[in-house]
Amino acid sequence: MTRVSSETSSLWLERMDQLRWCIRINNVSKRSDVGPQISVSLKHLEDTGLLENIPLQKQGTLLENLAKKITKDNFLHGIYTTSNDLMLSLDHSHMAKAILSDIQTNAGSYGRQSNLYDFMQMQSLNGTLIERRLAGQTIVVEFSSPNIAKLFHAGHLRSTILGHFISNINEWFGQNVIKINYLGDWGTQFGLLGVGFNKYGNLDALKASPLQHLYDLYVRINLEAKTNESIHSEGMKYFKRMEEGDEEALQFWKLCREVSVEEYRKMYERLGINFTHIHGESMYSKQSHDVINDLKTKGLLLYDVKTGVGYVDLTQPQDNVPLYGNLVKSDGTSLYLTRDVAAAIDRRLKFSCEKFHYVVENGQHLHFKQLLRVLRLLGHWWAMHLLDNVHIKFGRVEGMSSRQGDVVILKDILDEARSQMLQRMRTKTTTKVTEEKDQEAVAEALGLSAIIVQDLKEYRNNNYKFSWERMLNFNGDTGLFLQYTHARLHSLVSNNADLQCPSSVGADFKSLQENSAKRLVQHLGRFDEVLLRSYSEFEPCHLVQYLFMLGRLVNVAHDELHVKGAQLEIAKDRLTLFESARTVLAIGLKLLGINPLNHI
User: Fold this and answer.
1) pTM for this predicted structure
2) 289 included as an active-site residue
3) pLDDT digits (tens, 9 = 90+) for 43-62
C-alpha cells in the first residue's frame, strides 16, 4: 500500500508506526460493488506481532475497541467491523491522489517502496523491531541447467522461466543476484557417449547438426548398454579417464561442451535471458575429491561391502527412516551429489552469498535434503542458515508436444508459437504492425509472452497441462491478453499526448467518481502487496493473476471513461489513470521476463 501521508495521520491514535503495516487494500473485481477500500485483520495484526501480549479472550474485541478510537474526518468516511476485520471506507479522490501521484512520481519503481515494504524490512523479536534485510544480500539462483550434448528439451523450460522471474524480483527488491546456469556436463553418461562416438560417430553429421547427432548417438549407445554389460563398463572406464585428465578423452568432451553452449546461447537469446556465470559439474571434478578426502579424514565416509560404493549416514533423530547419501562410485569416481557439495562450498567462498536457490523440479527434493546435511556434517556453519527455500520446487508440464503429437524440443515450441502469431497478425484487420521484419519480431515476442504466462500463471508446485488453444487466445487469461492491453494503453496515451498529463502536482483527481475508475485505482494500490507476496513465496502466479485483473479493469474503464471529447480536467485525470495502469502493467510484465509491446 502507498505510504500513509500526513493527511491521514489523524486516523491512528495509538501505535501508528506498527498499525500501518497491517493495512491492506481490499480486492476488487471488474463488476464488484465499491465498498470499504481498506481493511485491518486479526491475521495481519498477528503477523506483525501486535497480538503477542494480548490474551486470546480479549483479541475478539480488539478490532471493535480499535474502531472506537478512530475518528471520522474528510478522508475517512466509514468504519465497520466484522469478527476478523476492521473495514475502512475512504474518500475516493484522496485515495486516487495518493496512489496515482505515487505511481507518476515513482514510475520506474512503483511498488518497491511502501508501508508493507517497510515492515518486510523489519521483524518482531520479543516486542523489539530488528532489521530483516529485505535488500542488499548476495543470492545465488541456479536455474535452467540443461545437460550438454542433448537438444534443449522443453522440459527445461519451466526451470528457466521460473528461475528468471525469481532472479528478476530479487533484483527488483535490491538483492545482488548471481544467476548461474549449472550445466550437466560431467558423469558416466559422457563416458558412454565417448564410446558411442568412437563406434558410430560421423564428423560431417556432427558439423551439420551437432546436438542432434550427439543425441542420436547417446540414445543408440544407451540402448546397447542395456543389453550389453561390456558397453557400460567401457563407458565407466572412459569417464574414469576423463576424471584422471586423459587428454584424448577430454578433447571429445570439450567438443561436446562447446557445441552445446553455442546452441543453448541461441535459445537463451530468444528467451531474453542472461546469466552471470555459465558453470558446469566438470568445474568441480577435482574439488569433489577434496570433499571425499575431507569426509575420509573426519571418519564419516563409509563403504558398502557388496557394491564398493562410498556413502555417508545422514540420518537425524527426527527421521522416521534412515537417510544416506552416496558420494563415491565403486571405481573411485565422483557422483552428482559430491560435485554439488563442492559447488556449494566454492560459491560460498567465491561470492560470499547469504542464500542459495536451486530452481529444480519436485522430484529432486531428496537430493537437496542430502546436500544440506552433507554440508552441515562437514562443519560448514553457514549451511545451518540455509533452511528454507534452498530448493525452489515446481511441478511438471504435461502434454507439451507439437501439433502432430510428438514430444518436441524448446526450439520447436518457440517456432510454433511464433508461426501461429505471425499467421494471425497477417489475417487480422486490426494489426498495426505492417512491415514484414517488424511483424516477425512482434510475433516472436507474442509467442514468448504466451509461453511464459501459461507457465507462470499456475502455482509452481502444481503440474499443469500445456494447451496451444488456451495459450494462443487473445481473449482469455493469457500473455497475449496482457500484451494487447499494454499496446491498447500505449496507443491511448500516445494519441492524447497533447493533454500533457499531470505528474501529480496540483491534481486532485476529484473527477474520477465512476465505479470503473474507483475499482482501477483501488487495484493499482495493491501492487506492492502482490509483489511482496510473489517475492516472499517465490510464486509468480500471484503477480500474473493480479495483472489479469488489471487488464479486465482497464478494459471496463476504457469502454466507460472516454478521454476524447471529455472536459479538459476530466480528460487529464482519466488519461493519468490509464497511464498509471500502463506503468504498473509494464513493470509486472518485465518482472515476469516479458518485453511489453507498444504496437501489435
Assistant:
1) 0.90
2) no
3) 877 776 667 777 777 776 77
